[in-house]
Design brief:
It is globular and about 85 Å long. The chain contains 16 helices and 24 strands. The N terminus is likely disordered. The termini are far apart. Strand 8, helix 7 and strand 9 form a beta-alpha-beta unit.
Amino acid sequence: MISRRLLTTLQRAPLSRGLSSRASTVLSALDLHSERELSGVYDGEWSGSGEVLESVCPTTGEVLARVHTATPSELEKALVRSREAYQVFRNVPAPKRGEILRQIREALAAKRDALGALISLEMGKICTEGVGEVQEFVDIADYAVGLSRMMNGRVVASERPGHSILEVPNPLGVVAVLSAFNFPVAVYGWNLALSLAAGNATLWKPAPSTPLCSIAVTKIVSSVLERNGVPGAVASLVVGGKDVGEGVVASKHVDLVSFTGSEAVGREVGKVVQSRFGKVLLELGGNNAAVVMGDADLDMAVPSVFFGAVGTAGQRCTSTRRLYLHSSVVQAFLSRLESLYQSVRPGDPLDGATLLGPLHTKAAMGVYHTAIERLQQSGAEILTGGAPYHDLAAPLDGGNFVMPTIAIPQEVNVEDPIWATETFAPVLNVGVFDEIEQAIEWNNGVPQGLSSSLWTRDIRNVGKWIGPAGSDAGIVNVNVGTSGAEIGAAFGGNKSTGWGRESGGDAWKQYVRWSACTLNFSDSAPLAQGVQFSNSA
């Protein structure tokens, strides 16, 4: 584990245009030797001879490491080995699988701070969020340990004497996890923990821009599997670009594809998996709204919206992108929110005082610029922000830093791209309403349906918000922001967000195959519904 003293040291470490001491300290703590090209394929053995990907630090622009991706033949080998490993692992008793998960949990917890620092280094989120993301993996592993003894079917009453009906869950097969850059550890953790508890093998294809996080996590998980005599391909890894992802999605060896990413790519993933009658779990776009009523507690609502919109530099699936304010609180709310925006300064995510890290890539800066340009052309008022940061001191001058932005469009038209498009950057659009029914209509009017938040002290508003005519999102919060879900409930969204559910609740039921088993322990074989099929008189 990286101690607080060591974290303080690396936060203060000088940076250079070579591999900085800041970066090398983080990498060495996880046995990632960036002086040589790293292997990006694991199927019980480490390999990788495909094209080389560069892991680039979004804070400084420095190249952290180079990673060999999977060739087509290496991908196929990893898929075959995953299938073979599943055929072994499915026979391991579920409580024993839970014990393996407990050991994975302990191994992750021992490296929590080091992994959190790596997330900050490679992805760009601030250190408290990086450590929190690893804690989320630890928490879901805890959850899955208990779940391994409670993945129960049920007994259904039969209409026929001497019969019982059982609904039985069994391991599904190979689960492929295609994760996104913004949660390079936790999303895999949600899937791996439930998949292992269910008796499956898991193959991970991470975002090509965060290969180091995936390699570090796989090293930790594989060491536990090896100690327990479990085939390493139970938790395989294939680093690569679009071609590797397409190969995984199309493979007949994969029973369930869990994909996190954009709506456009998710639509294509869904088509391909459905065409071969595989199972698919989609976690796609989030265009999340916070609704603030006139009776809201602004001491709670303002900082929550601030975190929701600015946390992770607006790069969470659950980031707050739309803010609907009751007309009676507009001035007070925006005045306080603007003050918080203007107080935030960009900084090194490894510095504990930093609240605003970089966007993940240069391409993300282009998305931000396009959104600002669209707002300006429409006549929207830019209340604060609206530009990249300039003249930052080295080494931050090489990073992808943009100003968090509050914009007030001229009108709320949820069919307009300004409102209907998810912008994966810290851009918050504000609309004003008088009645909660109008706010709910706006909340529901966009294609996406991930997270939503209502701020009120009136129980009547709560009833409308969570009821049949209320928010149609998968996450419907009251006096809680759109961002920062716990692992205990199922996580996921509706509509073009994909209808997928991961993590807690009943999400585990997607990782098993279900059978209805009718047992006859009588001396006759009657048909259901009283059907008679006999040629006797």
